[in-house]
Write a structure and sequence with these properties.
Elements: E1 2-5, H1 11-18, E2 22-25, E3 32-36, H2 40-50, E4 59-61, H3 65-71, H4 77-86, E5 91-96, H5 103-106, E6 111-115, H6 120-129, E7 133-134, H7 149-155, E8 161-165, E9 176-181, E10 184-189, H8 195-199, E11 204-206, E12 236-239, H9 243-260, E13 266-271, E14 284-290, H10 293-310, E15 314-318, H11 325-336
Parallel strand pairs: 1-8, 2-8, 4-6, 5-9, 10-11, 12-15, 13-14, 13-15
Antiparallel strand pairs: 2-3, 3-7, 4-7, 5-6, 9-10
Helix pairs in contact: 1-6, 10-11
Length: 342
Amino acid sequence: MKYLDSNDDLNIAIEYIKSGKTVIFPTETVYGIGANALDRNAVDKIFKIKGRPQDNPLIVHISNIDMLKELVTEVNEIEKKLIDRFWPGPLTIIFPKNEIIPNNVTCNLDTVGIRMPSNEIARNFITKCECPIAAPSANKSGKPSGTFIDDILDEFMEEDVIVIDGGESEIGLESTVIKVTEGTIEILRPGYITYDELSKIAPTIMNKNVTEKPKQDEKVESPGMKFRHYAPNVKCVLVVGEKQDIEKKMLNEIQEKIEENKDIKIEVLYKYNLPNLKLEKENIKYICMGKDDEEISKKIYHLLRDIDKRKPDIVYIESVEKKGLGIAIYNRLIRACEYNII
């Protein structure tokens, strides 16, 4: 692995892309691990380095609209409105793909997810590479995405990649992924661009797999829908309900675990206003996720990664409200907890 500061000469990273290798680069959402989206062999290296399942499609990143025209067969009127409103930015749109895109990018689907990041380092990098960049999040498959550079350095230290340090990710959650069918926007993966914002452009629906577990043999059009994602090695449990119910559930669960094993190490990830009642035990650690959804969004992956450094026996996480940005956070938390919900 080679490290570059964002102020360094990026030519070495550009040459890596042009020679069919991979580069980790910042975006406003999370860090991505990218390769030339038009080079099948280079794309294969992404799957190999991440340990990514072969039926989990990649998102293609572009830096200008001319790139989009080469990659897709059509752009409908609603998609044009979405582009005008949200690009550059954290919105991925599923388009019918042009044959120029290798099938391993899309996992043999006839559609491709494309976005134009707002991060200036990312767009400048893509422009100088003179090719679209296929890039999933920079993490080993199944683990929390990379939003802090130190997390990424640890995870990819032994890989033949270049890392461009762009500082802490601005948003902290992957892009919203949508497709437009018969005049309706369908959210496949929620993100910073919310249902309310999208519904101002056209009628909008939420794919059932946003909050439910997909079937194992089900084909998916977006990353983050099907497989174990964002998960620490430690068992995590998501606690849902109204504030008082969550608090009661947590206290009951913790007391039961302590009765079973007085030496058990427990962690509680909570929002700004929880818990009012704490069990004062040395082996229970309380960690505030943030005072609002924006702060939680920015911090959550780093907090999930830190869990594995401390190695508790079990973690209880307070759920967020399923509205606005909270839907995207909830979507990540149910997968981080591997659908262990009480």
